[in-house]
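Below is a filled-in request sheet from our internal design queue. Each sheet records the structural input a requester submitted and the sequence that came back. We keep these sheets so that new team members can see what a complete request looks like end to end.

REQUESTER: design group, bay 2
PRIORITY: normal
MODE: inverse folding
CHAIN LENGTH: 292
BACKBONE (tokenized):
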């Protein structure tokens, strides 16, 4: 979702570099300097909200626009060239906020989280599972559709993740003034309705509201780390053997590149970097190296 751009640029710039007001975030030299990887000049990508790597092509990524757009997505490369646009024929776009990719049982999939709910009124949110498109395709179909209910009440969420080995789903609410809530679903057995399970809560950021709003998340390719981002920074958690308890770990603060309205975040397909995207057009794609 796009924030009002009245927030002074100087405030955004200060927040991106500040570590003093981070709650529960330790600093580290594990992460390199954030840099701009490329810019997508194609105006069809006008509000990149989610981003994920191709499970089969290392220098290829997918992204989708935010609410108000059609049910579809784009494929682009590290040079910012849009390689293809796809329409999901059996999907609706109420408020697509995040996406993920995973290779499960030998098949590469893209997952799209229609999870936004600014007014807190949706009785159910929806996740679409789409096989990674083949060359020449422009229209694809979601082979599985999951209609998800929260165990308590409706929530607005923008962070959606899929475990790359188990296929389990995680949704993290956007929050702001309150703690963000973490909900999970064990790998769905097929199209249908499911109830999410609440795992706990967390609070990131500092005094500035935009530093607490969680807008995207991803799980590392080896399943050992989780990253969540806000408009003003990111936080990486180590995941234990009992994966869902990553929320108990102390996160490491990750300084992001200067971005106005940055929402998307993912790992490179080999886990060597974070890749982020901005909702503005041209769409800025940034990279933060990971030194493990």
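RETURNED SEQUENCE:
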């Amino acid at each position: 979702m796009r924030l009002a751009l009245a927030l002074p640029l100087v405030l955004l710039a200060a927040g991106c570099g500040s570590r003093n007001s981070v709650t529960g975030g330790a600093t580290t030299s594990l992460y390199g300097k954030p840099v701009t990887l490329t810019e997508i000049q194609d105006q069809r990508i006008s509000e990149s909200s989610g981003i994920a790597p191709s499970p089969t092509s290392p220098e290829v990524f997918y992204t989708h626009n935010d609410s108000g757009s059609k049910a579809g997505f784009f494929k682009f490369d590290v040079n910012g060239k849009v390689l293809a646009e796809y329409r999901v024929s059996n999907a609706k776009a109420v408020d697509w906020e995040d996406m993920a990719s995973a290779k499960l049982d030998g098949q590469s999939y893209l997952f799209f989280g229609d999870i936004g709910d600014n007014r807190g009124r949706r009785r159910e949110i929806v996740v679409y599972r789409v096989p990674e498109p083949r060359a020449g395709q422009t229209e694809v179909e979601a082979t599985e559709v999951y209609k998800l209910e929260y165990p308590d009440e409706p929530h607005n969420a923008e962070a959606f993740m899929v475990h790359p080995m188990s296929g389990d789903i995680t949704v993290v609410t956007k929050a702001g003034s309150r703690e963000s809530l973490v909900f999970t679903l064990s790998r769905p057995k097929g199209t249908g309705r499911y109830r999410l399970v609440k795992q706990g809560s967390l609070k990131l950021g500092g005094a500035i509201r935009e530093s607490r709003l969680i807008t995207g998340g991803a799980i590392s390719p080896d399943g050992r780390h989780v990253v969540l981002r806000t408009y003003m920074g990111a936080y990486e958690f180590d995941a234990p053997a009992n994966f869902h308890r990553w929320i108990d770990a102390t996160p490491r603060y990750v300084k992001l590149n200067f971005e106005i309205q940055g929402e998307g975040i993912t790992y490179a397909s080999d886990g060597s970097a974070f890749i982020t995207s901005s909702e503005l057009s041209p769409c800025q794609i940034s990279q933060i190296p990971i030194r493990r």
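SHEET NOTES:
- DSSP finds one helix and 22 strands in the chain.
- The CA atoms of residues 233 and 256 lie 6 Å apart.
FILED BY: M.R.
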